[in-house]
Structure formats: C-alpha cells, structure tokens
C-alpha cells in the first residue's frame, strides 16, 4: 500500500541531481552497482599527479567515506570511472561531483549511473566571508564550514579575522593586540597553530584562505594593545578620551603596519590579502588638530577622502612590496580612482540597480572586481530567501566583453552581529549553496529557480547526511534526518 | 593591564540577574561560597512533599548538575537556603531561580548572594507550540526543547502533532494513519512509547503536554490511512480525485473521531485537548453534491460557516464526554459564538490592533482566551526581533477586570514550514524567552526592553552553558561558548 503524496518530498532523489550544476553532462539509466569492498580510487597512468600527492591522497580517503557512509556488503561489480583534470584542484571538484552521483537503493546497495560530465567553474573566485570579530568562532566551527564549502565548490575562505569588537588573531610580533583586544586572551583567540590548522585543512579541500586586516576604520579593538595607533578624538581643544580610525599622520603607524603585514604575509601563504578600507568615519579625524594640520600641509583642504586615499595608498604599497595582491572594499575606489591596476575592488554596497552601475564604472576603469552586495547572507527574512541569492546575474551590467572578464567572482558574506557557532551552520547552508551554483554553473542552464528547487532540496539532504546541519527549504523530510539536538 | 571595552560584553554578569524576573526580590552583596562536596537539597521538616516525591527527587539531582557544571573543590560553607512553595510545580520553578543565582568567581568557586525572593507567575498558561507535521522532529529534539522551556519557566508543550503534510502519531486504534500518512512509516513516527517518554520527561520538568488533532481542515495526511474520512472534491458532476476537509455529513466520520479521541484522551493525561478548527477551505465542500444536499436538509442555506460550526460542536461534545476541556483556534468562535462556555479560544490572527479587538470581544462573551498572535516566532527578521515579543501587552485591551482574568496565558508558536531539528534550537532560544518573561513577570517591573537586554544576554549565555544552542542577541561573547559544530 503506497500513498501518493500531495506534498513536496525531499527524498524523491533523481540519480543525476547535482549541485552546483555541471557545465555539461549526459547520463543514462544504465546503472552500475558499486561494491565498497572492491571500490578504490587510483591515479591514472598518464596522470601527472601520482601516489604521495598529499591533496589527492587525502581526498580519496575522504570521499570514500562520503560516498559509502554506511556500507553493507554489495554485489561485485567491474568497470571503472575516469576523471581527468588539468589541476589537482579540478580533480577535487570532480571527486565531489562523483560523490554526488552515487546513490543507494532501498536495500542499501550503492549505484552510479553511466554518466559523462565536462565541467569547469564560471568564476575563479567563489568565496565565503566569516567574521570572527563580532563573535568568536571556535576553530572546529571554521573547519566544519570549510568542509561544507567544498561540497558546494566554494574555493575561497575570506577570513574577516579582526574588527572593532575584538582582535582574536594572536600575532607573533604584537602579542598585546590579542591579549588585550580579544574577548578573552586565552579562550577567544586564534593561535599561530590554529591558523596553520585552518590553512592546511582548507588546502586539502582546495580552498584558499584570504585574510582581512581591515583599516583604517573598524580598528577599535586594535587600539587596546597598540598605543598611539588610533586617532585621539577631541572635544573642542581637549582629547575626549575616545579614539577614532587609525592615525594616518604618524610615521609610527606605517612602521607598525609594515611589521604587522610582513608577519601576516608569511603566515597566510595566499597571494591575495584583503586590506579593508570601508566605512571610515571622518568625524574623529576632523576633531584632531594634528590631523587638521597634516591636511593643510598636504594640501588636502577639507577633503578627508584624500586623507583616506593617502593612507590606503601607503598600505597597498606595503603589501605590494611583500609581493601580495591587494583586495579592498569599494569605498577606496569610490574615493580615489587612482589605485594600482592590479588591486581587486570588492563591491558590497547598494541595491541591484546601484551595484550594477558600480560594476560598469569599475570595470570600465580596467579594475578587477568581486561581487558581494547581493549575497549578504547574514540578512535573514521569512521564507525562501535563497531564491534571491539564486537569481542574481553578476554579469548583467552594461559593459564590453572585456569588462565582463574583469568580474573575477563573488562572495557570500556572513557578518557576525547575530551569528556565532550556535547558529552559523543552519544560517549558512543551504542558502549559500544557491550563490555557489550561480558562481559555478552556466547561467542559461540554471535560469529557473523553480527547477532548481527540488535539486537544492536533495542537495540539502546530502549535506545533512554528511553531518552538516543545513536547514530545510520548505515542508518535507530527508531520508536521513539530523539526529542531534 | 585591563582594557575597557567599548562593546557590549555578554559576560558582565550581575549576581542577581534572573530570567524571567521574579515578582519581588531583594539581594545583597553579602555572598556565601558554596561547596559542591557539602551541598545538598533536602525536604523541609514541614514540607508536605518528602523523599520519594519523584518530581522533586529528580529535580534535585538535575539542578545539582546545572548549578555545579564543573566543580572543583571549594571552601567549606555552612548555612542554608530555604524554598517554600505551595505546590511541587512551584518548587520546581524555585529551583530554577536558585540555580540562576549561583555564580562562579575567576577561581571557579561557586557563590550565592544572600537573596530573598517571593515569586509567582502572572499567567497560568505559558506555552510553546512545536509542529511535528511539516517537519518531523526526533524525540531527542523535543526532550531537549522541554529542558530549555523549563529554564524559561514555560509550562505547556502544545504538540501540534499532525497536519496536512504528515501524520507521525502512531495510533493504536488506527495504525494505518501513520503507516501511510507519515513521511516514513518507521523512521518518521512517534510510537506510543515515544509519546510516553515525552509526557513523562515533561512532567518531571513541570510541563503539561497539550496534544492537538486539528480538524476538519489541515487533515490531508489523515486521508491516506482512513478511507471516506475526507470530502471528495468535485469538478462539475464528477469527483476530481482530490480531497478536501473532513467529510462532515457521514456518520462514519463521527464514529472514527469518537474512537480516535477516546484513544488520544487516554494517551495524553492532560485535562485539555486542542481541537484545531482553523482555516477551513469551503471550496471542496461547496463542490460536493452530498454536502450541498446536507446543507439544504439542515437549513444552512449557503452558509458553510454553519456547517463548520455543526462539525466542531459534534467534536467538542465527543471530547466533553471524555471529560476533557477543549481549546480551539479563534476561527470557531468567529463563525459561531454559541460554543460551550468552558472552551478556551486561541487567538492566532491579526495585527496588534485586531487581536486586541478579539480579546475584547471574546472575553466580553465570557470566554477564556489564550494569546498566540504576537508570538509567531517562526517568522524571522534581521536584527533584534525579540524586542517585539517582549513589548507585547496581553492585557492592554478594552474590558473590565473580570474580562482580563479570562486571559489564561499566551503561547509561542514555532510552525514548521522552515524548521526542523537542524535549526529549531537557535531559532527558538532566546527569542522565546522574551515572551516567557512577559508571561511570568510583572509588566510594570519589566517595561523597559533596553534594561532587559543585558539580563537576557546573560540568560542566553546560561542557556549555552547548559548545552542549549541559543543564538546570540548581538555582538559579544559568552565565557563558555558553544563548542559544537
């Protein structure tokens, strides 16, 4: 006796449901049972990578467990699948795709259907920002997020590691920054070994770690451990006791920054570094007589955007000398269009109408850009807001083909005002996966949000099966529910 | 070297921060160390309850672990605290309050300040609704929610156990209801022993379990396992193959309901039972020739609200005969003001302006009411929406003192469209705690939402310390963060 359900069921699994959608694939109903006892991954004879490639050796082990979470003995099968990739990182993505192709019948036997897939990412930069300053995230929570990121083919972890509320990064050069600037000097910090652990875990999943040390604004917590770094604010002719952004007029500021970024450059091996530069409040600078004198000397008049530009140029030069490419929030360009051409601009402001204008203007100036504005996923709303993240069209702005190529990718931002380890995972997944498909897949093949819905529901159940506490999209169930509490 | 923080810190704990606020208390800075090795709870000589009172014996054990989560040896202390309560349930609430009074200094020693508290609840009914039909919630998730409810002094678990999408209750009398109506007949059901476990766990926490079997609408899943129960819808003169609400014209319907509610009455010992009665869609009834003939015979004309009233009256009579008091959603009264006087009306609709009018109208008719409308906590919004739940004034409607007394309490509703075990806890806590204080504490003493904020932040950290994944209210941290992933 089988009931026909009137309700969307999450467990109507189609064997070729993949997320994000590959660029092209053909599958057939010809299915092959997989015997976990006989199954193995191996390197092809022609493969440049061979045994001892640490990334793939680790990935083989990992994906075996992901593919066969509870294997019982299956029937014996012959045959093989082959995966060709130009890079090790491409091979990782292919393993993820393969793992999603394997399914179980009601008796628990694993199957994979005959399938051919040709795939590549639409954008090279597919990032997620986590904010570990407004709330501290335990290292375990970050590692688990990296796992889930790989399942959606994200490849950049943008670590917004410090900000106004706290400075959890334990610096070798300036240990006072965290011992006085962290929420707690022992329990709410990232030690050097924590950072190494995050970077090496991320590497094995094919994820780059992009650190952000945002200045001159968003630095209140820095001031606790580094005297004379922040600008003293004045009330009339006397210091008020409060502090503003980094003090841009003292040579000691740049000496400090050079030493800090030298350390950061060696701790974080990625070729990119994020310098922030957003939301600088000028009122404190305006109140300070030394800053005003400096403005006059430099001929900036009353235009404090010139002072910020002056400051950012110095910081960009410091990181250039360290052979790093800078990423800055859009404010920096908005203030000062003369900025080194290899700097990447990060768009975070505005409505769809206004960020499209920014995309147009910035790429026209020949700058590379990264789009975050439509994916501020910390903003929540009742219902299926993933649809808004899915329907973003990052290249739908007025510009030439050359301009479009300057959009290097996009980023999902999970700012931390209302998020810590208690709610991070269900708030991030599967909503971020909607953006992941937009950044990976062909837009024409993924234009229907309604067609995507059951596939995303299925993918969400796959995440739950893998131990990721991804929240439901709507009424329904998964064959294997989250059992924790 | 101590930094002065510019940011709200969750760990500035005041020793007399309690949630919800007691009706009256005085505390002093005179503090007493507690030695876990020597600490014990005992029954007073005059106490009517003595050893072997299962509820209090269990509570003593439980609260010992809650109060001393990681005790090291402390200094020896003498003295004692006494707790006088009229009922066992009152003693449970007092234990909760006492447990919130104990704090640790930096060396880990436990202290309690000299404090006198006189306390009682503002409303007798302080409920939380969980919906286990739109998503199945594992028993563990329900039990954990009961624990957290007790921490906020909630005392009713309204179990919206079945609805359109699924029928997870495994009935002894009608096993087909769940074997065909549940999402899965084995893994997504509540067996009789599951239900007993929930009820007995709830009892030990002083929480009543109010079951809801909502009809005649919201019953799609019932139809799978019980033929002829739902109304066949017609397209013109032929059945369309779809079904509407329960069929109110067949005697077999009432025979089925009498048997079902007889079982439910014995399985759920509470004196209240929730009969639903909301959102009945009349279009299917209208399409059905048998229903139309019945309407004519009964003289209802074209007024289908009379048919619903007829049906509900029959169901209320069934449960009255079983010695249960009925609760129904407001729709039933809106349609048909002649309803047994001891029925409780549950207000779920409308804006603050409109539910106040309902409160006025219903209490004027002498009916007891329960307010849920302002606490639909499944609706989420960015930011501190707990403030909206906190500022509700349940008695701020036009009516006499007698009318106000008819408001028996309120209920936080967590409907299940977008909620399952992956996100239930952080979505419920501490947002529901805001409503809990409104239902427990004196409104005059708790009129400032800004004053409540740091105390609620502290309470949220207490929940986290107790293993409840309660989400953060704003930037900050807890001394003991959630470490899971």
Automatic annotation (TrEMBL), chains A, B:
Gene Ontology BP, a term: carbohydrate metabolic process
InterPro entries linked: Beta_hexosaminidase_sua/sub, GH, Glyco_hydro_20_cat, Hex-like_dom2, HEX_eukaryotic_N
EC number(s) reported in the record: 3.2.1.52
Pfam family, one: Glycohydro_20b2
Location of the Glycoside hydrolase family 20 catalytic domain: 123-442
SUPFAM superfamilies from the UniProt entry: (Trans)glycosidases, beta-N-acetylhexosaminidase-like domain
Keywords: Disulfide bond, Glycoprotein, Glycosidase, Hydrolase, Lipid metabolism, Lysosome, Signal, Zymogen
Root EC class: hydrolase
Catalytic reaction annotation: a ganglioside GM2 (d18:1(4E)) + H2O = a ganglioside GM3 (d18:1(4E)) + N-acetyl-beta-D-galactosamine; N-acetyl-beta-D-galactosaminyl-(1->4)-beta-D-3-sulfogalactosyl-(1->4)-beta-D-glucosyl-(1<->1')-ceramide + H2O = a beta-D-3-sulfogalactosyl-(1->4)-beta-D-glucosyl-(1<->1')-ceramide + N-acetyl-beta-D-galactosamine; N-acetyl-beta-D-6-sulfogalactosaminyl-(1->4)-alpha-L-iduronyl-(1->3)-N-acetyl-D-6-sulfogalactosamine + H2O = alpha-L-iduronyl-(1->3)-N-acetyl-D-6-sulfogalactosamine + N-acetyl-D-6-sulfogalactosamine; Hydrolysis of terminal non-reducing N-acetyl-D-hexosamine residues in N-acetyl-beta-D-hexosaminides
One GO cellular component term: membrane
Similarity comment: family membership: Belongs to the glycosyl hydrolase 20 family.
Name by which UniProt lists this protein: Beta-hexosaminidase
Organism: Sander lucioperca
Gene (UniProt): hexa
């Amino acid at each position: 006796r089988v009931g026909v359900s009137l309700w969307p069921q999450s467990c109507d699994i189609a064997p070729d449901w993949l997320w994000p959608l590959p660029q092209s694939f053909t599958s057939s109903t010809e299915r092959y049972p997989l015997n976990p006892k006989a199954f193995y991954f191996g390197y092809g004879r022609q493969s440049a990578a061979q045994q001892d490639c640490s990334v793939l050796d680790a990935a083989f082990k990992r994906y075996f467990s992901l593919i066969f979470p509870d294997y019982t003995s299956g029937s014996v099968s012959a045959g093989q699948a082959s995966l060709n990739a130009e890079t090790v990182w491409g091979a990782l993505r292919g393993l993820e795709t393969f793992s999603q192709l394997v399914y179980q019948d009601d008796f628990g036997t694993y199957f994979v259907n005959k399938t051919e897939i040709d795939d590549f990412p639409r954008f090279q930069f597919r990032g997620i920002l986590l904010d570990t300053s407004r709330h501290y995230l335990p290292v375990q929570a970050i590692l688990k997020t990296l796992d889930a990121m790989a399942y959606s083919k994200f490849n950049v972890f943008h670590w917004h590691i410090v900000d106004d509320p706290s400075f959890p990064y334990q610096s070798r050069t300036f240990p006072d920054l965290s011992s006085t600037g962290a929420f707690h000097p022992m329990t709410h910090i990232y030690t050097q070994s924590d950072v190494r652990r995050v970077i090496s875990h991320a590497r094995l999943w094919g994820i780059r770690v992009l650190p952000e040390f945002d200045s001159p604004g968003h630095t209140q917590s820095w001031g606790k451990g580094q005297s004379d770094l922040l600008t003293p604010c004045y009330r009339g002719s006397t210091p008020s006791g409060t502090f503003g952004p980094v003090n841009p007029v003292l040579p000691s500021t740049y000496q400090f920054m050079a030493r800090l970024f030298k350390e950061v450059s060696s701790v974080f091996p990625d070729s990119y570094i994020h310098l922030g530069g957003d939301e600088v409040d000028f009122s404190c600078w305006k109140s300070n007589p030394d800053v005003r004198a400096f403005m006059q000397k430099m001929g900036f008049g009353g235009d404090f955007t010139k002072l910020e530009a002056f400051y950012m140029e110095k910081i960009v030069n410091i990181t250039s000398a360290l052979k790093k490419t800078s990423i800055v929030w859009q404010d920096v360009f908005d203030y000062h269009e003369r900025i080194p051409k290899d700097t990447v601009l990060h768009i975070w402001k505005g409505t769809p109408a206004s960020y499209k204008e920014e995309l147009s203007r910035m790429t026209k100036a020949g700058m590379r850009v990264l789009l975050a504005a439509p994916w501020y996923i910390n903003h929540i709303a009742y219902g299926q807001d993933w649809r808004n993240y899915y329907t973003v069209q990052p290249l739908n702005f007025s510009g030439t083909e050359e301009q479009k190529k300057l959009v290097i990718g996009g980023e999902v931002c999970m700012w931390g005002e209302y998020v810590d380890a208690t709610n991070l995972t269900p708030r991030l997944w599967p909503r971020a996966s909607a953006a992941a498909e937009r950044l990976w897949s062909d837009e024409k093949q993924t234009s229907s949000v309604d067609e995507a819905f059951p596939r995303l529901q299925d993918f969400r159940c796959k995440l739950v099966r893998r131990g990721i506490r991804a929240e439901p999209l709507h009424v329904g169930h998964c064959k294997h529910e989250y059992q924790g509490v």
